[in-house]
Design a protein that fits this description.
Elements: E1 13-18, E2 21-32, E3 39-45, E4 55-59, E5 64-65
């Protein structure tokens, strides 16, 4: 996300990478990792990724907000 420590909202549109390819999707949920408390977002992809994956969990700092 643009601001350090910002938390994406459910339904927010984002861009990230999967297997080296840029992908776009929508945030379904945001949670913390159990041991370290890092923010992780579940992102539903607009189109399946290169391996056929339709959703992924990604660290919030690896997301870019899109309009």
């Amino acid at each position: 996300m643009d601001e350090l420590g910002s938390r994406p909202a459910e339904g927010q549109r984002v861009r990230t990478t999967l297997d080296g390819e840029a992908v776009r999707g929508t945030v379904e949920s945001v949670t913390y990792t159990p041991k370290k408390g890092n923010l992780i977002a579940k992102v539903s992809l607009d189109e399946p990724g290169p391996s056929g994956q339709s959703a992924l969990a990604v660290a919030v700092e690896d997301l870019d907000e899109i309009d």
